[in-house]
């Protein structure tokens, strides 16, 4: 089976595992970041069989989805019954996904992966708190650095634990670029930023231009770094090739504003 | 033996659990740290760690895994409380501001997820696959139980099985796990673990039914809120179920639920009628049945002083009034 087919299969298995009939009548189907799923799969494939790599990749992805679900939590007071129910299910479905990662890894007897994910989730929440409740003013560069750390909290941990520490800077930059493009897209489509909106809107001017510059700069840097990595044979070639191909698509989409 | 005597006997171990909770909950961010430690200081009955410590006496209670398991269970319970307060939009717990009230929903999410991850990290060192399968299944079912509760809100047509499954997932499974894990972590054979699992399960069912009864019969002072809060929030618990299906109150209850009445007088009347209907006594009978089953399980285990302590806890559950 070709890699693309393997990834497609893992994606569909995960979609079906995440399905909760009642939750999905109230909340939208959770978004699966196919790139993250693919990277997890490729990282685990270094040490595991296809089946085991797929199981681990799905479990870590479920943990990510749990955190993402809680990220959509609103903080303002709600009085509308439907919105209250949505908020309640946002909390509980996030908890359900968080429980599911442990459940599936325990069934695979992958206790070391359970530990890595638990530690990564702690880092993620500490980083999120530092981002939203910083005691000092964060400048643009610090915001970008914070976002990079948040976006890669889990993938960085998994890569390090699997001995692929050299892949970490590439993964960090790739997922940062993805997030920045997503923010740019949200801004273009909705007239607002989604995730770090409060930080950016309150403290930074010309956000749109800054995002453009940042994306272009990061794409150029990552492109060079991937070229360099590709020259070193044996250095996680599948991960590098995957990132390379996806970066080209992302960058083209960004330039043409087709995202 | 009284409950306070049991707590006294386990005082040393409970102190170790408390100390470890404090050290595990340390977080490298001031808000996360404060939120977690405030939860710890708010206290609680620590019934789950107590059950774990007691059940461990069927094996070797000095094993490190016993304390780790007790700490892990309390952490899971704490994490679920932080998130429950967001779900219920509660500003007070045990008379103190909740995390969501003191900060906001976002901090509550981060704190709950952080504490939950701490619990999993702590227990991940334990090389016992049976324990992990049990814990992870219970945690998953716990969240499914909470989702069920939202699903069934205002559903006056729900049957008894739906209610029992909900309280099983919401409360009984974690108590069952507390008992089973105590035994397994102390090196007991699986069959002892299973018996204690069922003891905890029956105890937990009774515990939640008692909670649901107290919500109707407790005073404002005991409850910290007006009686009948569950029904006012659309949550159909056992007394309401009996009132609906056995005491001819279907129309009255249906009317207040479907009209989402804001007239407190109308709610108070219905709640008083449920109290007077015999539904409370029926609920107490079912609770007692579960307690009887829990005691019968203990009769099948060696009659150590542990069995007497566990029976005492069952007696307390049956008579508690707060």
Automatic annotation (TrEMBL), chain A:
GO biological process, one term: menaquinone biosynthetic process
InterPro entries from the UniProt entry: HEPPP_synth_su1
Record-linked Pfam families: HEPPP_synt_1
UniProt protein name: Heptaprenyl diphosphate synthase (HEPPP synthase) subunit 1
Origin species: Sporolactobacillus nakayamae
TrEMBL record, chain B:
Keywords: Magnesium, Metal-binding, Transferase
Domain of life of the organism encoding this protein: Bacteria
Family matches, as Pfam families: polyprenyl_synt
CDD domains, alphabetized: Trans_IPPS_HT
Membrane-crossing residue ranges in chain numbering: none
A single MF term (Gene Ontology): metal ion binding
Family, similarity comment: Belongs to the FPP/GGPP synthase family.
Name listed for the protein in its UniProt record: Heptaprenyl diphosphate synthase
Organism of derivation: Sporolactobacillus nakayamae
């Amino acid at each position: 089976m070709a890699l693309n087919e393997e990834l497609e299969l893992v994606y569909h298995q995960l979609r079906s595992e995440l399905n909760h009939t009642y939750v999905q009548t109230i909340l939208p189907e959770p978004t699966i970041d196919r790139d993250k799923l693919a990277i997890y799969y490729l990282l685990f494939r270094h040490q595991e069989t296809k089946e085991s790599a797929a199981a681990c990749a799905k479990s870590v992805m479920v943990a990510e989805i749990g955190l993402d679900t809680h990220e959509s939590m609103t903080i303002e007071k709600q009085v509308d019954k439907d919105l209250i129910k949505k908020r309640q299910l946002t909390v509980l479905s996030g908890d359900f996904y968080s429980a599911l990662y442990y459940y599936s890894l325990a069934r695979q007897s992958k206790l070391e992966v359970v530990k890595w994910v638990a530690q990564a989730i702690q880092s993620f929440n500490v980083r999120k708190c530092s981002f939203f409740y910083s005691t000092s003013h964060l400048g643009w560069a610090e915001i970008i650095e914070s976002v990079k750390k948040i976006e890669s909290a889990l993938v960085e941990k998994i890569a390090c634990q699997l001995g692929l520490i050299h892949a970490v800077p590439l993964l960090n930059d790739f997922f940062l670029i993805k997030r920045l493009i997503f923010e740019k897209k949200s801004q273009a489509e909705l007239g607002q930023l989604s995730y770090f909106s409060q930080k950016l809107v309150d403290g930074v001017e010309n956000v749109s231009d800054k995002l453009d510059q940042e994306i272009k700069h990061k794409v150029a840097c990552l492109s060079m770094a991937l070229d360099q990595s590709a020259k070193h044979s044996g250095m996680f070639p599948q991960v590098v090739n995957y990132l390379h191909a996806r970066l080209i698509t992302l960058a083209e989409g960004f330039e043409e504003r087709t995202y | 033996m009284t409950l306070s005597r049991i707590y006294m006997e386990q005082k040393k171990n409970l102190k170790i659990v408390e100390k470890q909770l404090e050290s595990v909950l340390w977080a490298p961010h001031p808000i996360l740290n404060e939120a977690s430690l405030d939860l710890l200081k708010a206290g609680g009955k620590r019934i789950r760690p107590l059950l774990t410590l007691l059940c461990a006496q069927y094996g070797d209670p000095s094993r490190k895994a016993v304390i780790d398991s007790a700490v892990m269970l309390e952490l899971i319970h704490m994490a679920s409380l932080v998130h429950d307060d967001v779900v219920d939009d509660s500003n007070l717990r045990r008379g103190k501001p909740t995390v969501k009230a003191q900060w906001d929903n976002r901090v509550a999410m981060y704190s709950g997820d952080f504490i939950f991850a701490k619990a999993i990290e702590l227990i991940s060192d334990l090389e016992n696959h049976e324990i992990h399968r049990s814990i992870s299944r219970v945690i998953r079912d716990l969240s499914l139980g909470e989702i069920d509760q939202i699903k069934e809100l205002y559903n006056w047509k729900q049957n008894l099985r739906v209610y029992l499954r909900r309280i099983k997932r919401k409360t009984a499974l974690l108590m069952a796990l507390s008992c089973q894990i105590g035994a397994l972590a102390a090196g007991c054979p699986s069959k002892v673990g299973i018996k204690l699992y069922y003891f905890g399960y029956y105890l937990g069912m009774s515990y939640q039914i008692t909670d649901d009864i107290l919500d109707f019969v407790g005073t404002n002072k005991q409850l910290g809120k007006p009686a009948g809060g569950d029904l006012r929030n659309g949550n159909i618990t056992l007394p309401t179920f009996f009132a609906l299906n056995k005491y001819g109150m279907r129309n009255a209850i249906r009317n207040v639920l479907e009209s989402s009445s804001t007239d407190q007088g109308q709610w108070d009347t219905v709640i008083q009628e449920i109290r007077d209907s015999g539904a409370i006594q029926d609920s107490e009978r079912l609770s007692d049945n579960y307690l009887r089953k829990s005691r019968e399980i203990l009769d099948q285990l060696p009659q150590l002083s542990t069995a007497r302590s566990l029976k005492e806890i069952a007696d307390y559950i049956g008579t508690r009034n707060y």
